[in-house]
Records
---
Amino acid sequence: MQAAEELFTGRRLHEITLDDVAHQAAVGKGTIYRYFRDKDDLFFQTAMNGFDELCDLLERAAPGDGAFAKQLLGAAKQISAFFRRRRPLFRMMQSEETRMRCCKGELRRRWTIHRRRMASAVADILHRGVEEGTVRGDIPAEVLAGILLGMLRTNARDLPGMSGESPSLRTVVDLFLQGAGANARRRGASVRSSLAAAAASGDRK
């Protein structure tokens, strides 16, 4: 799986063969077939493992107490750092996400389970925002978590040129909490101040 991830750095899925993976992993091709049905199964399981790694990271590293803004920004930092650090795996997860939209049956069910686990890890933080009145409660937290994760994926994929990680993430979290309307810039002033304070507090620690 690590070899498949490494090969995905400079190639697309259809350009990689199991022979390439076997060579990269320094194993016989038959060894791969002991654990995976075919190339699609290998890449599918590698992507699912990426979801599990990210979930484990969130569950371990997300702050258990403190202000909601600090918790949310901390989770956003963990997710963004994972996407940047594991960019080939991120691309693989994105590729499988697209493929699963057209897939049915057992693969789709397994994929959905892993995605829901990640959304639940973020939703646990959003529930606190609902309790504080910072996050609207008329939409399920799991749905809001999916929206936030989509924004963070977009940020990791399309906005690498923004001025540094922390300002970019504060902008994403601000957009999530306040929206993209022109009036949101004024409404979001206090939120941005809270996010900046949370970031500064985390840096001091």
---
Amino acid sequence: MSPGTRPEAPAIRVDLQLIAGMVPPGSRVLDVGCGEGELLAYLRDRRSVDARGMELSMAGVQKAVARGLAVVQGDASTDLADYPDASFDYVILSKTLQATANPRTVVEHLLRIGRHAIVSFPNFAHWRTRLDLLLKGRMPVNDHLPYSWYETPNIHFCTILDFVHLCREIGVEITDSLALNAAGDVQHFAADSRWANLFAVDAVFLLEEKA
């Protein structure tokens, strides 16, 4: 490896690979709630994007900056308002929507700041979640929802159909939608699919404003 050359980005989670595949090479990208910069580093090294990030946790910011990434500390619920219109080609919100104080306002800001938005979240209507609530009468704790109710950062759980309804309500066009099941298999689905609402563990949406 020649001096100054970055090592190739390691493999990342399936949902993050799906998000990366939606971003054309050379795009200007803002990753909101970017954590330690895993996706941003992958996009920078494999898609040659202009990668920027925002993260609430200072520990996450420090680790992302140590990777050579341009990441600032900020809260998606309040600080997206400071970004000017059309600053980015793609704004990403990966498994963060449910932890924001006002998800509707956050989605509106994503599409004000970027020409496109990519949003992923855990689907609270998955059949196993429904079964846990039915049989146990308690909030589920599993690999995809790992926190107990009293310590979870998630404050606005939603289902796929909830999110689709929100997009329609605020005039957002869904241009692609992907479902991941518990085995990590991926399928495209119609936005209002009740099949996906029942069997998808996670969902990924590509959005843009309606013309």
---
Amino acid sequence: MILVDLERVAARRPDRPLFEDLSLTVSSGDRLGVVGRNGGGKSTLLRVLAGASNPEEGAVRRGRGVRVGFLGQRPELPAGTVRAAVGEHWEAAAILERLGMGSLGDTDVATLSGGQAKRVALARVLVEDVDLLVLDEPTNHLDVDAIAWLEDRLAGFRGGLVLVTHDRRMLEAVSTTRRLAVWAGRVAELPAPAHERR
């Protein structure tokens, strides 16, 4: 099933293009990793895919009823406690624990550090019932155990996945269908590593 389809989309900064004339389809089961330099357009591409931003040119089409979970680079949380932001059920509590936030369930989200807020936002996305996960740097602020757990969790996710990460191990483990490089105003598909080629 097609989850999202980009047709000839473009996004620009005042002084340069981030990407132009980009056509890309993400379907169920796709696992895309996106790489590139900081400031090169990776986060903008993810925001367009997730529906959080509109491209300056081109068309974005989503499959009927497709549910998207989006973790942005600087996520915003609803006012209230950590527990209220993520959910009161057992899975929410378990995910918060795995991400090192289990003891902060009653903490007001307004008092969290940037790293803590990112982990709460990640937990919030992971408890949602979605068809497409779009994650911008989900391993930031996680320890080794939490990263290993997240890798397993994403490996078991059956929907579509688009991921930006500088964690090479995570990239190789979960972006198993395609890798895209956002570079100098273009988006190019990278060849799979030799061990993944058939």
---
Amino acid sequence: MKNDVLAFEGLVERNRDDLYSFAVGITRSETEAAEIAQQSFLSAYLHLSQFRNEAEFRAHVHWIAAKLMSSSRSPPRTSPAAEGALKAPETRAPRNSRADRNCSADQQALSAELRRAIEDATDRLPERHREALLFKDVAGLSYEQIAEVSGQSTPAIKEHLHQARLSLREVIDRFYNER
């Protein structure tokens, strides 16, 4: 029993930030996101014996969070508090010279600016497009799972996701063309 609790704590530790960011990206509320994460982890704890690996655990908590968010859907908030909705992967290259350090500092600033541009663009997406993007690309839900949670057809989900990705691609293209 003690080993189960320790294993669960480790799973929560490794997945909590990702789940919380996902929930903030959809709900636009830090309080709601924290409650959804807590309920999702409670559900996972109650079903802990059913998971064969961490990927199944991660999928379950995101699935439960998505279901909770869709069942308590409220009008979208326009608060910019959706920090971390889309996270750029961290890259760390070894630094050998002063030129490398300057280049790396420039790249980090560029990455931060690009991340802000993507987050702003994600915030401006129509709600259905933003949800499809976050459910698919952040939470990793299947099209069928997204359709079930949102009550939309799979083709509609694919269209929303396509439009969201096109919008973000335009933002990224514009970002680099203005440099």
